[in-house]
Design brief:
The complex is a heterodimer.
Chain A (H helix, E strand, L loop, with lengths): L4 E8 L2 E10 L1 H16 L4 E4 L3 E4 L1 H16 L4 E4 L6 H9 L8 E2 L2 H10 L2
Parallel strand pairs in A: 2-3, 2-4, 3-5, 5-6
Antiparallel strand pairs in A: 1-2
Helix pairs in contact in A: 1-2
Chain B lengths: L13 H23 L3 H16 L3 E7 L5 E8 L3 H6 L2 E3 L5 H8 L3 E4 L1 H7 L11 E7 L3 E7 L7 H46 L3 H12 L6 E8 L2 E9 L5 H10 L10 H8 L3 E3 L4 H7 L3 H8 L5 E9 L2 E10 L8 H37 L11 E8 L10 E7 L4 E9 L3 H21 L3 H15 L6 E10 L5 E8 L4 E4 L5 E4 L16 E6 L4 E5 L1 H4 L2 E2 L2 E2 L1 H9 L8 H14 L9 E8 L4
Antiparallel strand pairs in B: 1-2, 1-6, 2-3, 4-5, 5-6, 7-8, 7-11, 9-10, 10-11, 12-23, 13-14, 14-15, 15-16, 16-19, 17-18, 17-20, 20-23, 21-22
Helix pairs in contact in B: 1-2, 2-6, 6-7, 6-12, 7-12, 10-11, 13-14, 16-17
The chains are: A alpha/beta, B alpha+beta.
Chain lengths: 120, 607
């Protein structure tokens, strides 16, 4: 199914940056969910960076929305990066789902981190 | 023998020494050959070849006694003509025969001269005779007879020596039989273990049946046939032969004389009826006569060269599913009770596997029926509108999909169109698609706009589905005018806009993006109005179309547009729907990983 997608987690201070690269769909959506769930349980705010994502499908989107909502319930901040350089289909699916008002999406990683830190 | 040691002289002559040396050499060769023998056949060959040389005989024959001790069967011979072999293939164990007598008495029997032979054993009159015949017992195995075409003197010591050698040979043969038995036992266990693994690999009914046959050959049979009871009768589902070139003949006989389980003669039928296995250790004319309809049939079956046969029923949960037939033909091997036990064990495992596969198949069918229940009963028909829909569930078997569509009349001149995609697969997603379809239809009855209809659906999703389950949907309300054109109001909830193909070929989007349903209590949803003239087309699809991938390429809107640009005035809704579906399928070599649904609406000009 997926020809190649990876998830890399690196700390930026106390925020975990989850970089999603390549293609992600139903096949590996679960891995992403577990990753974000783990961070939530650790009480860590996170930023999901989709700058280098080339493809995501509705299953992955569902995970992002779901995990964002759960983090919010715990009072944890979560941010998303969708850049000009992100895959066309990535931007498209987010636009079609009309979730820009639901998910805090920034153009750059720095902007996302600032949004998380700035609002404390 | 030119010189016989021990006859008198206290010293050995030079010729005697040479003779003794040769004898020791032959004895050594015989011992080595017996030690090296791995099979009964090899041990018998060694005995015959080396025995002939050792005892300087002209003919030798070994006959084995059957388990009941009633009959001898020739196991091998040297120096006799083929006629002797067929004449003496079997003979009774009675003192009328010198070899029988020797075996019974446990002592060598010597018959010197044809006259003595006829006198003592009148039954041997008319047969090929040796000048001297020496019959030696070989324990429980049977006996060996050596023939000489010249006169030889055999003093007691020599006969004792010959008898000792014969005993040694019989021991070697017995060892090989035990070894072979040990190997067969190990092979049987291995076979059953392999069966367990093989059957768990596939849930496809037909594959499992073929696995059964492939496992049995050649370990347990030269030929294996699996028949299954189906609604229309007994059907042969698998036939495997150790020599594949023999299969056509087997099939031909099976076809020409199709096994009728209702026929009282049918061996397979008997097994199916009684649920008891059958072991026919020796397929003989009597057996053939019983199971065949006429002489021609018997001859046809005889020509298959079956030597030994086992038929075991396939029974799972009290139901007889069919039968496995195991045949030994080309190898000439003979089935015994151990083989029957193994066959029954194999059949037990196979029956469970087949039953599971059929259950799974049934489940798949149920799932597919369920799936179709999630879709409109028949191609929706709305007066004056050309409608076509294509639906492809991607999941294998019971992985029922989450895409749905619906088209239904709301009045004489109005109808509703809905399409959507529930996240995930399986029963949960499937039940949610049912909820979605139902909710949209009901909401459309009292909600004034499509955005309000989707708002209701959103509420239902929030209320009834787990927090991470979402749904996309597009809903359009269409009203038909007298001139045949269609006034549409369309709203999208996280669903891609539709496409309109105008009369002049221009493409337009239908609907403005709205929020994915199930995420928020009050989603942002917009209504858009558009008009479709008679002959123009509206296409709605799910992301299984646009997100179809091949390597790094993606079908996307470009792929869609490419098909839509080909549309001309004469295109029907069905043509476009099929073209689009085909384009999606052809885009990549492997089958789609995601469901896809396509709905095409084309208002017809009034007549």
């Amino acid at each position: 199914m997926t020809t190649g997608g990876s998830i890399e987690v690196a700390p930026d201070g106390d925020v975990a940056v989850v970089a999603i690269r390549g293609e992600h769909d139903l096949a590996n959506a679960d891995a992403l969910r577990r990753e974000l769930e783990g961070l939530r349980k650790q009480g860590r705010p996170f930023v999901v960076d989709l700058t280098d994502a080339t493809f995501i499908d509705s299953a992955v989107l569902g995970v992002l929305i779901g995990e964002h909502d759960r983090a919010a319930e715990r009072g944890l901040r979560a941010g998303f990066v969708v850049a000009e350089g992100s895959g066309h289909s990535v931007r498209k699916i987010i636009d079609l789902a009309g979730v820009r008002s639901v998910l805090p999406i920034s153009d750059t990683r720095d902007a996302a981190l600032e949004a998380i830190r700035g609002s404390r | 023998m030119e010189d016989v040691p021990g006859t008198g002289s206290s010293e050995l002559s030079a010729a005697g020494v040479e003779w003794l040396g040769a004898r020791l050499q032959h004895l050594q060769t015989l011992s080595a050959a017996l030690a090296a023998a791995r099979t009964e056949a090899e041990a018998i060959d060694a005995t015959l070849d080396q025995g002939l040389a050792l005892f300087e005989a002209d003919q030798a024959v070994i006959a084995t006694l059957d388990d009941a001790g009633r009959e001898f069967r020739i196991a091998g011979m040297r120096g006799y003509s083929g006629q002797v072999h067929s004449d003496w293939a079997t003979f009774p164990n009675s003192d009328d025969y010198p070899l029988s007598e020797a075996t019974r008495r446990g002592e060598p029997v010597v018959v010197a001269g044809p006259d003595e032979l006829i006198r003592r054993y009148p039954r041997l009159a008319g047969t090929e005779r040796s000048e001297v015949l020496v019959c030696l017992p070989m324990g429980e195995f049977g006996g060996i007879a050596l023939g000489y075409d010249r006169e030889v003197a055999l003093p007691p010591e020599e006969l004792e020596f010959m008898a000792a050698v014969a005993r040694q040979c019989s021991e070697a043969i017995r060892r090989t039989t035990l070894d072979a038995e040990r190997r067969r036992r190990a092979r049987r266990l291995g076979l059953l273990a392999e069966a367990g693994a093989a059957f768990s690999r596939s849930l496809d009914y037909r594959t499992t049946l073929l696995e059964v046959a492939n496992l049995a050959v050649p370990g347990l049979a030269d030929c294996c046939i699996v028949d299954v009871v189906e609604a229309t009768g007994l059907r042969q589902h698998a036939a495997v032969h150790v020599r594949p070139e023999n299969l056509p003949q087997v099939r031909e006989v099976e076809q020409r004389y199709a096994p009728d389980p209702g026929d009282p003669r049918s061996a397979v039928g008997a097994v199916l009826r009684t649920g008891s296995p059958t072991l026919v250790a020796d397929v003989d004319d009597e057996f053939l006569g019983r199971i065949t309809r006429d002489a021609e049939h018997a001859q046809a079956v005889r020509s298959l060269g079956m030597r030994s046969l086992i038929i075991v029923p396939l029974i799972a949960r009290g139901r007889t599913l069919g039968a496995i037939t195991l045949i030994q033909d080309v190898s000439g091997r003979r089935y015994d009770d151990q083989d029957l036990t193994t066959a029954v064990s194999l059949a037990d495992r196979a029956a469970v596997a087949i039953d599971n596969a059929r259950l799974h198949g049934a489940q798949v069918e149920v799932a597919q029926v369920l799936q179709r229940g999630l879709l409109p009963d028949r191609e929706p028909r709305i007066a004056g509108i050309d409608i076509a829909a294509r639906y492809l569930a991607a999941g294998e078997g019971i992985d029922v999909g989450g895409d749905f569509y619906d088209v239904w009349p709301r009045s004489d001149h109005a109808f509703g169109v809905a399409i959507g995609d529930v996240s995930g697969k399986g029963a949960r997603a499937a039940s949610m698609t049912a909820l979605a379809r139902h909710t949209v239809r009901v909401a459309a009855l009292h909600e004034p706009t499509p955005s309000r209809v989707l708002g209701v659906l959103n509420q239902e999703v929030r209320r009834h589905c787990p927090p991470d389950m979402f749904c996309t949907a597009a809903y359009a309300d269409a009203v038909r005018s007298e001139d045949g054109s269609l006034d549409l109001t369309i709203a999208l909830g996280g669903h891609p806009p539709g496409a309109v193909v105008r009369a002049d070929g221009r493409l337009e989007e239908a609907g403005r993006p709205g929020m994915l349903l199930g995420v928020r209590d009050t989603p942002d949803l917009t209504d858009q109005r558009l008009r479709l003239a008679a002959g123009e087309l509206l296409v709605l699809w799910t992301d299984g179309v646009t997100e179809r991938r091949s390597g790094t390429r993606i079908f996307g809107e470009e792929g869609l547009a490419e098909v839509l640009h080909r549309v001309t005035a004469g295109w029907t809704a069905d043509m476009l729907a099929r073209e689009l579906e085909q384009a999606v399928l052809d885009f990549a070599p492997e089958p789609p990983q995601d469901d896809l649904a396509i709905v095409v609406i084309r208002p017809l000009p009034p007549h």
